């Protein structure tokens, strides 16, 4: 069972298709689905639909034609998303309907808790996109139909007293305030006990305890009798000031500002400092923003830092859009120093034509 963590994407397409309800079964019809398979990085959301005796529970279905996660770009990702501002639990089945309206690839989940609004649960690697396209070829049109069967929808007993009007549940308010307090500690430099020095020689003040909690790299550094721990000074020669600042913001407050400016350097830093959640955030950004204008740049970055998923998705994206790509300046700018990239693209093109 998998969960998505990104609340909003630039390429989100809301209210795609229609949802038809019959006896707690919801059919989501997505017209012209092959068109969405011609480009990566899109997130499709169904219209909001209701369940429960009085329609008190609100939901959407969430679909990524090119996979939410990083490594399995040949698969669709499929989830159910809560539009409830309180914790709710549900059992559900997700299926694709074939040309005979029979269920294909049924996946079942029992008593899944949705803790907050916009939280979604489902399957990163739901079904191979090729299998879906084969089904659509047998239909009169290109409409993909997904069937959701909901059952045992309820508010958990320990949360019945926590429901309040408004956008946030009590636990969400507490969590938000805690993050704001931690961010204030960082911004105001209150009670700091360590200084980080960037590649430009600029200083940033922080707290050993918070850094250790957010990064195994720092936890190991401050746990042992290392010179950085003794002097309360950490020199980071390979990261600039802006990257370190955003990395600290993520450790303290769980967010990043100006990601488009620091995504690549932030990914490298997160890898070095062993912050998996931040690596995932940057990976999502690469997938969402992949285009003809940056595919070569992303692929080069993937080769430089041995990022397999980025090499693969950029390569497949270029090959899938090769006719448009050859007209791009990025294609003509390929040079002898990028022999490995050129050869890799050639092999992928050969594989696609077999």
Automatic annotation (TrEMBL):
Coiled coil: none annotated. It comes from the Eukaryota. Residues 23-150 form the MATH domain. PROSITE patterns: BTB (PS50097), MATH (PS50144). Pfam families: BTB (PF00651), MATH_2 (PF22486). Residues 192-260 form the BTB domain. CDD domains: BACK. GO terms for biological process: protein catabolic process. This is BTB domain-containing protein. The lineage of its organism: Eukaryota, Metazoa, Ecdysozoa, Arthropoda, Hexapoda.
């Amino acid at each position: 069972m998998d969960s998505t963590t990104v609340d909003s994407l630039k390429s989100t397409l809301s209210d795609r298709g229609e949802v038809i309800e019959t006896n707690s079964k919801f059919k989501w019809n997505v017209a012209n689905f092959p068109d969405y398979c011609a480009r990566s990085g899109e997130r499709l959301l169904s219209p909001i639909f209701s369940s429960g005796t009085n329609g008190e529970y609100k939901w959407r279905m969430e679909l990524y034609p090119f996979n939410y996660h990083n490594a399995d770009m040949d698969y669709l990702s499929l989830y159910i998303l809560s539009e409830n501002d309180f914790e709710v639990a549900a059992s559900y089945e997700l299926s694709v309907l074939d040309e005979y309206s029979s269920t294909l690839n049924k996946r079942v989940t029992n008593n899944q808790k949705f803790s907050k609004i916009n939280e979604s649960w489902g399957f990163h690697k739901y079904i191979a996109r090729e299998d879906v396209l084969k089904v659509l070829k047998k239909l009169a049109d290109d409409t993909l139909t997904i069937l959701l069967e909901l059952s045992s929808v309820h508010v958990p007993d320990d949360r019945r007293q926590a429901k309040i009007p408004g956008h946030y549940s009590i636990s969400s308010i507490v969590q938000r305030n805690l993050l704001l307090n931690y961010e204030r500690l960082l911004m105001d430099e209150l009670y700091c006990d360590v200084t980080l020095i960037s590649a430009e020689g600029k200083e940033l003040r922080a707290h050993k305890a918070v850094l250790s909690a957010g990064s195994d790299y720092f936890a190991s550094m401050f746990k042992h009798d290392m010179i950085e721990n003794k002097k309360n000074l950490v020199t980071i020669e390979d990261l600039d000031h802006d990257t370190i600042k955003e990395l600290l913001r993520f450790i303290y407050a769980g967010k990043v500002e100006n990601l488009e400016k620091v995504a690549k350097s932030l990914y490298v830093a997160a890898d070095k400092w062993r912050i998996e959640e931040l690596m995932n955030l940057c990976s999502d950004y690469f997938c969402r923003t992949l285009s003809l204008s940056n595919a070569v740049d992303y692929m080069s970055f993937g080769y430089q830092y041995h990022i397999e998923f980025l090499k693969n998705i950029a390569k497949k994206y270029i090959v899938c859009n090769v006719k448009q790509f050859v007209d791009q300046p990025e294609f003509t700018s390929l040079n002898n120093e990028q022999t490995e990239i050129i050869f890799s693209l050639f092999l992928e093109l050969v594989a696609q034509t077999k």
